Every structure is written in C-alpha cells, then in structure tokens.
Amino acid sequence: MRLQLSGKATCNSHGQGSSYFLGWQEYEKNPFDQTRNPQGIIQMGLAENQLSFDLLESWLSENQDIAGFKRNGESIFRELALFQDYHGLPEFKKALVQFMEEIRGNKVSFDPNKIVLTAGATSANETLIFCLAEAGDAILIPTPYYPGFDRDLKWRTGAEIVPIHCTSSNGFKITACALQQAYQEARNRNLKVKGVLVTNPSNPLGTTMTRAELDLLMDFIIEKQIHLVSDEIYSGTVFSSPNYTSIMEVLLKYEKAEVWDRVHVVYSLSKDLGLPGFRVGAIYSNNDSIVAAATKMSSFGLVSSQTQYFLSALLSDKKFTKNYISENKKRLKKRHALLVSGLQNAGISCLKSNAGLFSWVDMRHLLSSNTFEAEIELWEKIVYDVKLNISPGLSCHCSEPGWFRVCFANMTEETLEIAIRRIKALVESASRGRDKVISSQRSSKNNSRKKSFSKWVFRLPFHDREAGER
C-alpha cells in the first residue's frame, strides 16, 4: 500500500520550478572550473560575498585559541557543548548588535534584549510572517524582489504575496500610487493585508532606499495600521553614495507613537561577512510579543553555541571589524565597476546602483520581442549556449521583460572577466544576426521594388521611358 504524503509535502508552492532555481540546477550539472572544466557554466546567480575571505582567514590564523574553543588557555568545549539557551550567548548578542550599529554609522542603537537569533535570514523572515499573519493573509512586497521570498514567506506559512509594482521609469522606486494599488488589489482578492516587506539595500536592484521612500512607507503603514518588515541583510555592502539609511533611523522620531511596535528588522551575517554556511540570522523588534513568540519559534532553527562563541570573539575585535567593513566596501566597489564597465563595452547598460553583490542588467534590446516569452528564450540561450547562470527578471516578478540580475562577488576576478567576454560574444552574435536579417529584408524589399519598377517602366510608352533614363 502506497503511503499518502501531506498536502504541504506534495504541493508546488515551494517555488522550486522558478527559472531562478532551474538555473542553479543546470549550473550544478556542469559547473565552471578554470582548470578542470573551462567550458562549464559560470555561476552568476548566487549572491555570495567571497571577496574578503582572506581578511577572515587572517584573523582566524591570529586567534587560534578561539578556533580551539579556549578561553584564557582553558578549554570551554564542555561549556559550549551543553549550552542550549534559546536566547543565545549574551556576549554574542551584544557583539552582533554592536556590529549592526557600526555598519549603520552608529546613527542608531540596538538593544540585545530585543534581538532573536535564527538560523539565517530565511528562518528570520519566515518566523516573522508566522508571527504577523494567518494563512491567507497578504504581505505587500515591491517588485522586483528576491525570488526566494516565494518560498520563504509563503510555502509553509500559507500567506500570500501581493506585488507593489515598481517600474524602470523612476529607477524602480516605490510610489504612493503603487502602494495604494497593491493594497486595493489585495482587498479585491478578499485578502487581509498584514504588512509590507522591503529589502534595503534592494535585492535584486542593488540600490538603497531613499529617505523619501522610507517616510512614504511609514506614512502608509500608519494609515493602514499594518506592519513593516525591513530586510537589511545587505546593509554592510553599501559601497558608494547615496549613503545608507536604515528604517531604524527613520523610526527614531516615532518612539512615543503606536507604530513603534510595528516595525521589524531582519539581519544576517551571510552577505556582509560572507558567512552563509554559518547560518546566523536575527530578528530585531520593539514589540515584546513578537520577540517572545519568535524566541519560542527559534527552537526549530537555533544557532549553535560554538558558532556564537567564535563570532562573538570576531565581532568584538573592533580593530578587525573597522578594517573589514572599510576594505569590504572598497573591494565590492572595484568589482562592481569591473562588471559594469565590461557590460558597457559590450553594449549593455545597468541600473545605477550603490550596494549589494549584483547588478540589475538591462538586456531589453536583445529580446526578439517585448514579452516574457522572449526573456525566457534569451535566458535559456545564456544558460545553455553562453554558459552563464543569471537570474531573469521574471523570476524576480519584474513587470518589464528584459531585466536580469547578475552577481559579481562570488567568483575570482579572472572568472568574471571570462564571463564578460562570453556576454560580449553573445551581443556580437546577436548583432550579426540582426544585421543579417535586416540585410535580407532590405534585399527582399529592393528586389520587390526593382520588379515593380521594371514592370511599371515597361508599361510606359516608349518616349516616357526615354525621359526617365535621362
């Protein structure tokens, strides 16, 4: 007898069928290696920061006692092995909030008692949705947005995502009209709106939100009496102006207001420190009920005590963190410039950005038509023929076909240069193809005109033909 699985186990709402995940699957079948597989697929769909690993490794080599779980020369292995407090190591939470403050230019402060540790930002976002929404409630998210949100926010919680449609006409900034339209769309679908979730800096745009956008969001959630979640996992990747403004900085003027308890921040060390494998995320909220509920839920995704101990020492080293933050931004800026200039030389432009590990790339001129079918056709050519895995805008719910997210910080500079050459070859091939089509069309039109002209000429009287030749 065949055992039946649950509806959750068999449903397709995980989002695994998205082109975002399909590209990863193709990469895993044929991964690029400069020596062993130079014709393989280069992974440009993964937002990882590998540019500053040498700084972390250098710190580790100078602090071997930490790696050996020693304090003042004495082993603390037993202490760490038995530690199971859901609230986390106090010294780690203190070091983490201080690092978050440093990244934000010390313009805001965080209370260690208001932070909940989670196994990465994925767990943090899902936990918050479990706390804020019932199954069938709606969360509004500006487009384009991180494809993984379809999994993280919806799959197990049962919540619905309603897009706030942003367009290239203003650099994909949030507008009051777009907010109201999304809210009304949710109401038309009989969905109760529980909040707005934004990523700042944006994934996939690589831009920071303006103060005007943040003020607009605050006005909106106050008017609608809903929550705001600000996913700020890229806050330490801002490498050029304009400067970064956290929602916590905006919230300062609302300290005595009721909205103070309805703004929540998600953070992680996956992007800023390049440690996705450590699975360290966090929820920060002024809402005591949220903190209490999220702490209970965190038992399903705890951060190991060994990880907390190691990172508390790392983040408490102020000389290291200051140098790391500064150097990381310099390297990201240089790498971003390399990608953007390389694409420009190939005839491809990017949205102007100042943060993140990726660029939002405009390939609309390479589409065979202004449709998402044409976008997927181009994406398949890039994955299978050009051998680059990038993320199509459709997977990010972009409302305009032809935009792609291209990551640049998860590979060596040499690999990026190879990727740029491949893209340039694609553009040149497309250009030759267009020229050939245009030439063929012109030739066909000219032949048609010659035939028509010839017939017209020979229908004329003889003296008219003579006059025409003169």
In short:
With 470 residues, this protein is an alpha/beta fold.
Record keyword descriptors for this entry.
15 strands; alpha/beta; 46% helix
Description:
- By secondary structure, this protein is of the alpha/beta class.
- The chain has helices spanning 7-10, 19-29, 53-62, 64-67, 77-82, 90-103, 120-132, 149-152, 176-188, 211-224, 247-251, 288-297, 305-316, 318-345, 372-386, 413-459, 462-469, and strands at residues 42-43, 70-71, 74-75, 115-118, 138-142, 160-164, 193-199, 227-231, 263-268, 281-285, 349-350, 358-362, 388-389, 391-392, 403-407.
- Strands 4-10-9-8-7-5-6 form a 7-stranded mixed β-sheet, sandwiched between helices. Strands 11-12-15-14 form a 4-stranded antiparallel β-sheet. A two-stranded parallel sheet has the order 1-13.
- Helix 11 (247-251) links the parallel strand 8 (227-231) and strand 9.
- Helix 14 (318-345) packs parallel to helix 16.
Low-confidence stretches: 449-470
Multimeric organization: single chain
Task: Going across the biggest sheet, name each strand in turn.
Answer: 4-10-9-8-7-5-6
E-strand count: 15
Structural class: alpha/beta
Evaluate the radius of gyration. 27 Å
Helix run count: 17
Our measurement of the CA-to-CA distance between the termini, rounded to an integer number of angstroms, reads 94 Å
- Hey, roughly how much beta strand do the residues contain? 5-15%
Write the layout of secondary structure elements.
Elements lengths: L6 H4 L8 H11 L12 E2 L9 H10 L1 H4 L2 E2 L2 E2 L1 H6 L7 H14 L11 E4 L1 H13 L5 E5 L6 H4 L7 E5 L11 H13 L4 E7 L11 H14 L2 E5 L15 H5 L11 E6 L12 E5 L2 H10 L7 H12 L1 H28 L3 E2 L7 E5 L9 H15 L1 E2 L1 E2 L10 E5 L5 H47 L2 H8 L1
Parallel strand pairs: 1-13, 5-6, 5-7, 7-8, 8-9
Antiparallel strand pairs: 2-3, 4-10, 9-10, 11-12, 12-15, 14-15
